[in-house]
């Protein structure tokens, strides 16, 4: 993976400290990047050991009784079938599945740029973006944190080239203008803390729409 | 105490035959540990108990998903408990939204050339590691796991530059990798 997620973000994720949007971005990266998965597995071992290490703690017999009583209504679910992406969502790793509509519902924003908003709790705007090859997002800068995970195709901006599984952390106030690579359309998950600010001559007209959440 | 093998056997017994005695043994060992772990972050006893109970019921429901080749019982139950805590916190903040347990599927099911052999890890090995970390590194790791704070929040709380916290985390993760690599290779 040429652009891995920073390790401190993997710790935030493994410890359960991330808000829903950023956690989904890291989950998708982890699903696509064996090295990140290994780090998260190691952190899981650490978390398990910290929990296992809790000393002698009082046990509540009544709690066990009430839990056993509840089990009567709770089945043991069969082993889940291996995940298979649904038609139209071939690029979607398993952690994304619960957030996808029955059918792809891409909304055209402007030429060659489409968006699918995902409903997640929390203060982040979480979307899937699709860019036709050679098309770009308008020049913009970021007011808050932004995480991008590429799910299909790739894109290039001033910071480098990003392919499937690559993870980009919003570059702060610097402007950047990603362009989709040739080949398949680029599909990426984008998680934004605050609305982006468009800075190009065309983009400035769109800012009121961005602020209102229209695009 | 419950050895990693014994704990894995109990989960497999639940999956194979809805073994209530196995569940009770697992519950006796893990419910109090989950509760104590959750309370370290400042969660009240009642809520921590609810997390523990809900987590162990999830262990019952999802027992067939457990794979001792992928994760130890402690790691698997930790992950479930962590997700239950997150669900509970989100429900409290936004009662209208039901969240999915997608964090439990953090690793995909497909065959993995790099398949984890971390499952055999025991508490002892990681305890040695924690003993070997500097106090500076340890406090960051503990705040992350016990208080579920992000590294950004930890830097603010400790009044440290973000870069300092990041380098402590990376050093600690390097040590963790070294400690576990013996068994991975």
Describe this protein with a few key phrases.
heterodimer, A: 215 residues, alpha+beta, Jelly Rolls, six-stranded antiparallel sheet, 5 helices, B: Rna Polymerase Sigma Factor, Chain: A, Arc Repressor Mutant, subunit A, 2 domains, 0% strand
Beta-strand percentage range of chain B: under 5%
CATH C-level name of the largest domain in chain B? Mainly Alpha
CATH topology of the largest domain in chain B, what is it called? Rna Polymerase Sigma Factor, Chain: A
Q: So what's the CATH class of the domain at 102-211 in chain A?
A: Mainly Beta
Low-confidence segments of chain B, given as residue ranges, are 94-117
Q: Would you count the extended β strands of chain A for me?
A: 11
CATH homologous superfamily (4th level) name of the largest domain in chain B: RNA polymerase sigma factor, region 2, helix turn helix motif
Distance between the termini of chain A: 31 Å
| Biggest interface, CB < 8 A | A-B, 64 and 84 residues
Specify Rg of chain A, calculated over alpha carbons. 20 Å
Note the main sheet of chain A: 6 strands, antiparallel
Q: What is the global morphology of chain A? A: elongated
CATH fold group of the domain at 102-211 in chain A? Jelly Rolls
Overall morphology of chain B: globular
Sheet with the most strands of chain B? none
- Residue-averaged pLDDT of chain A: 86
What would you note in describing this structure?
The complex is a heterodimer of chains A (215) and B (185). Chain A is α+β, with helices and mostly antiparallel strands and 215 residues long. Chain A contains five helices and eleven strands, in the order H-H-H-H-E-E-E-E-E-E-E-E-E-E-E-H. Chain A has a domain at 102-211: Jelly Rolls. A six-stranded antiparallel beta sheet of chain A has the order 1-2-3-10-5-8, covered by helices on one side. The relative contact order of chain A is 0.17. In chain B, 68% of the residues lie in helices and 0% in strands. The radius of gyration of chain B is 18 Å and the shape is globular. Chain B starts with a helix and ends with a helix. Chains A and B meet through helix 1, helix 2, helix 3 and helix 4 of A and helix 2, helix 3, helix 4, helix 5 and helix 6 of B.
């Amino acid at each position: 993976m040429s652009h891995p997620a920073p390790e401190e973000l993997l710790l935030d994720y493994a410890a359960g400290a991330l808000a829903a949007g950023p956690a989904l971005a890291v989950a998708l990266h982890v699903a696509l990047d064996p090295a990140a998965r290994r780090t998260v597995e190691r952190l899981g071992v650490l978390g398990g050991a910290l929990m296992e290490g809790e000393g002698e703690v009082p046990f509540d017999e009544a709690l066990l009784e009430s839990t056993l009583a509840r089990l009567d209504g709770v089945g043991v679910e069969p082993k889940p079938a291996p995940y298979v992406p649904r038609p139209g969502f071939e690029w979607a790793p398993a952690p994304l599945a619960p957030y996808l509509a029955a059918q792809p519902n891409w909304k055209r924003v402007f030429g060659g740029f489409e968006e699918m908003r995902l409903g997640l709790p929390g203060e982040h705007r979480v979307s899937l973006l699709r860019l036709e090859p050679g098309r770009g997002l308008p020049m913009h800068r970021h007011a808050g944190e932004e995480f991008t995970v590429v799910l299909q195709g790739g894109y290039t901006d001033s910071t480098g080239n990003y392919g499937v599984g690559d993870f980009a952390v919003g570059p702060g106030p610097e402007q950047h203008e990603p362009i989709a690579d040739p080949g398949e359309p680029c599909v990426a998950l984008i998680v934004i803390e605050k609305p982006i600010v468009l800075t190009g001559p065309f983009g400035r007209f769109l800012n009121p729409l961005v602020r209102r959440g229209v695009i | 105490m419950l050895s990693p093998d014994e704990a894995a056997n109990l989960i497999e017994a639940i999956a194979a035959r809805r073994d209530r005695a196995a569940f009770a043994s697992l519950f006796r060992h893990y419910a109090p540990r989950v509760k104590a772990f959750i309370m370290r972050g400042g969660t009240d006893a009642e809520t921590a108990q609810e997390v523990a109970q809900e987590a162990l019921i999830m262990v019952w429901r999802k027992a067939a998903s457990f794979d001792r080749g992928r994760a130890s019982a402690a790691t698997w139950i930790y992950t479930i408990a962590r997700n239950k805590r997150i669900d509970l916190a989100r429900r409290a903040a936004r009662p209208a939204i039901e969240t999915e347990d997608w964090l439990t599927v953090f690793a995909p099911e497909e065959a993995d050339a790099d398949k984890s052999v971390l499952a055999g890890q025991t508490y002892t090995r990681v305890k040695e590691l924690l003993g070997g970390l500097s106090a500076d590194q340890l406090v960051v790791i503990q705040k992350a796991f016990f208080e579920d704070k992000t590294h950004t929040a930890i830097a603010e709380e400790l009044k440290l530059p973000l870069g300092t916290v990041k380098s402590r985390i990376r050093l600690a993760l390097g040590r963790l990798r070294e400690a576990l690599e013996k068994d991975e290779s």
